[in-house]
Design goal:
- The chain is of the alpha+beta class.
- The strands form three sheets. Strands 1, 2, 3, 4, 7 and 11 form a six-stranded antiparallel sheet that branches. Strands 9-8-10-12-13 form a five-stranded antiparallel sheet, with no helix packed on it. Strands 5-6 form a two-stranded antiparallel sheet.
- It has two domains: about 250 residues, no CATH class; about 80 residues, no CATH class.
- It is rod-shaped and about 145 Å long.
- β8 and β9 form a beta hairpin.
- Helices cover about 20% and strands about 45% of the residues.
Length: about 350
């Protein structure tokens, strides 16, 4: 009996010595100010950020030097009578990208045994976690595009000389023996033309251009003219018409914003800038401005996955990984209550945090 008991104890010791050690993988949240060794696999939960490009076009209208004569000489009405600037939002473009959530970083460490952590790679490929060894660079913000520069606005003022010879008659009184005699004297003087005269010359030149083009197009001209000659006449006429109707220039400005929803609220409204049709982007509180807003509305598609028993501060867990299932958000960009852009995007930080078992228990 005693011999049998000895064999039993010996066999138990052999079996215990040959047993497979437990595989324990610890997933520990990393908090700001923690002092711990980061030897292991560090990853973060993903969060969704947005890059918003707003393109603003400034239209500069310069009145023509002969605007007062447009109706009288060419029957043109409603021409600009003063210089003016106007602004409009021409384009709104929105992009989303993933980056690491600084508030949800984790250290995965093998405590004992040996576990296959290939599941981490699969979760990273599917976007459920964010591998901290990756970097996301959405590009540098661009604020301004082209500018028209300075210089003369109107150059083709006339094909005629800016001066004219004026001949005036003066009378010179000569005293003779018996009487006074008035003798006419001609005096030439170079005079600068008035704006009325120059405007009339420009109008006559426009009408002459139209007549010549009509003769070419109807075949009444003895010399046939190619198409590019007719187009050139159109360009010359347009240049002279601008002396009466003015010119317009457009300059484009692009403003870039990077926005990350907090994920704590069901609805978020972020005021980006204030915009005026007369002055463009202005300081907050301007009288004639409207607010450009960026709004997020959480749809709650993942509410059913929420674990009500889980504490607010995530605990350390063994043989499991934390990951995040994105929720869907309604995204709207509006100006003064008018919708400029509306779409639906998956937003990671609006989703729920779940646990996924990894490896084997032994």
């Amino acid at each position: 009996m005693r011999q049998t008991l000895s064999f039993f104890i010996l066999g138990l010791l052999v079996l215990t010595g040959c047993s497979v050690p437990l595989n324990i993988v610890e997933t520990r949240p990393i908090h700001k100010g923690d002092s711990m060794s980061l030897s292991g696999y560090v990853y973060s939960l993903p969060q969704t950020s947005f890059k918003l490009n707003i393109e603003v076009v400034r239209t500069r209208t310069i009145r023509g030097p002969y605007y007062r004569f447009a109706e009288k000489l060419l029957s043109l009405v409603d021409v600009p009578t003063r210089n003016n600037n106007s602004y409009r939002i021409s384009n709104v473009k929105l992009e989303s990208f993933e980056e690491a959530d600084p508030g949800h970083a984790f250290l995965v460490k093998q405590v004992s045994g040996q576990t296959d952590l290939s599941g981490l790679l699969r979760l990273g490929e599917e976007g459920l976690i964010f591998d901290d060894r990756k970097t996301t660079s959405p590009g540098d913000p661009v604020i301004l595009t082209d500018d028209s520069g300075d210089g003369p606005i109107f150059t083709e003022l006339s094909m005629e000389s800016n001066t004219a010879m004026s001949i005036d008659t003066f009378y010179k009184t000569i005293l003779t023996d018996t009487s006074f005699i008035r003798v006419p004297v001609l005096k030439q003087q170079l005079m600068v033309k008035t704006i009325d005269e120059k405007a009339e010359e420009a109008a006559e030149f426009i009408l002459e251009l139209r007549y010549e083009r009509f003769m070419m197009l109807t075949g009444n001209n003895s010399t046939p003219m190619p198409d590019y000659a007719v187009k050139r006449l159109d360009e010359i006429e347009r240049e002279y018409l601008e002396l009466f109707i003015g010119k317009s220039f457009e300059e484009s400005y692009r403003y870039t914003f990077y926005v990350t929803p907090s994920g704590e609220e069901v609805f978020e409204n972020i005021e980006l800038l204030e915009f005026s049709e007369r002055r463009g982007v202005v300081e907050a509180g301007s009288v004639d401005s409207e607010v450009l807003s960026f709004e997020f509305r959480k749809t709650g598609k993942t509410e059913i996955l929420k674990d009500l028993t889980r504490p607010e501060k995530l605990p350390v867990q063994n043989n499991s990984l934390y990951y995040r299932v994105p929720d869907v958000a309604e995204v709207e960009v509006s100006l003064g209550g008018r919708t400029l852009l509306y779409d639906r995007y998956p937003v990671c930080q609006y989703g729920e945090i779940l646990s996924l078992p990894i490896g084997n228990s032994r």
